[in-house]
């Protein structure tokens, strides 16, 4: 990051030499066209940052270089850089350019950033980190939901469970699964927990997109979710904690089998 007084990169963050392949367009990547060119470009650059092509402190190629590599306008490059700055991945300064910020400044609850993480070669570590956070948060959140849920919130939980049972594709099942857990976070009555729903949704979507789930496993998972719903409906916090822990343990096992 540049020194505030001199406006130059500090010694601690020297310019990182980037592999030539990191600044070339992939042969099979689609040509970026249309009104959302800058969104596609931000996605391509963001993914490269998250997967480590550009480590923190790296000065990125300038507008002219990106424009040449992806055959887009400089204005599209500028808009893409602005998007990545808003997500905390980049900072920029005139005469210096854009550089990658330290990971702790990235907005890890941003849907796009989560998607890039889950699509990176290190996605297994990402999923394990999400599971660790879920173990810390969801049992207590579900216990709160059992104490505080309204009839309307209970209906939302029931509907998501029903949709899981009636889903005709794994995608529908996974979407309903995510809605189930998000509805519980809302029913907890703690607004600070709700944004974590984005994290859970992203993790579930990307996990089950890369694994095959047998029918027996699907039935078992549904039973675990039914137990969670029952504990909230009957307003039994301790039962709710235990039910969620069993469901999370099942997901842990799926990740472990997938990683073998």
Automatic annotation (TrEMBL):
One GO molecular-function entry: DNA-binding transcription factor activity
Gene3D superfamilies in the cross-refs: GntR ligand-binding domain-like, Winged helix-like DNA-binding domain superfamily/Winged helix DNA-binding domain
Keyword Transcription regulation carried by entry: yes
A Pfam family: FCD
UniProt domain HTH gntR-type: residue ranges: 35-103
Keyword vocabulary terms for this entry: DNA-binding, Transcription, Transcription regulation
Record SMART domains: FCD (SM00895), HTH_GNTR (SM00345)
CDD domains, per database record: WHTH_GntR (cd07377)
Keyword Transcription regulation: yes
Name of the protein in its database record: FadR family transcriptional regulator
Organism of derivation: Rhizobium sophorae
């Amino acid at each position: 990051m540049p020194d505030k007084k001199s406006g130059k990169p500090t010694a601690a963050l020297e310019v990182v030499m980037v592999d030539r392949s990191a600044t070339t367009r992939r042969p099979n990547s689609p040509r970026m066209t249309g009104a959302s060119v800058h969104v596609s470009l931000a996605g391509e650059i963001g993914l490269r940052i998250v997967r480590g092509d550009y480590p923190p402190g790296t000065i990125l190629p300038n507008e002219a270089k990106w424009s040449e590599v992806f055959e887009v306008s400089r204005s599209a490059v500028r808009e893409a850089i602005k998007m990545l700055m808003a997500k905390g991945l980049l900072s920029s300064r005139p005469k210096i350019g854009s550089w990658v910020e330290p990971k702790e400044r990235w907005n890890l609850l941003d849907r796009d950033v989560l998607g890039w993480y889950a699509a990176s070669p290190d996605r297994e570590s990402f999923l394990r980190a999400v599971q660790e956070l879920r173990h810390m948060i969801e049992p207590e959140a579900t216990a709160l939901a059992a104490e505080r849920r309204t009839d309307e919130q209970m209906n939302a939980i029931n509907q998501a469970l029903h949709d899981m049972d009636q889903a005709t594709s794994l995608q529908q099942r996974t979407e309903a699964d995510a809605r189930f857990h998000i509805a519980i976070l809302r029913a907890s009555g703690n607004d600070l927990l709700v944004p974590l729903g984005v994290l859970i949704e992203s993790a579930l979507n990307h996990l089950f997109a890369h694994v095959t789930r047998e029918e027996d496993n699907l039935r078992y998972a549904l039973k675990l979710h039914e137990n969670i719903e029952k504990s909230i409906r009957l307003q039994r916090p301790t039962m709710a904690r235990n039910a969620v822990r069993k469901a999370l343990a099942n997901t842990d096992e799926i990740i472990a089998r997938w990683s073998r």
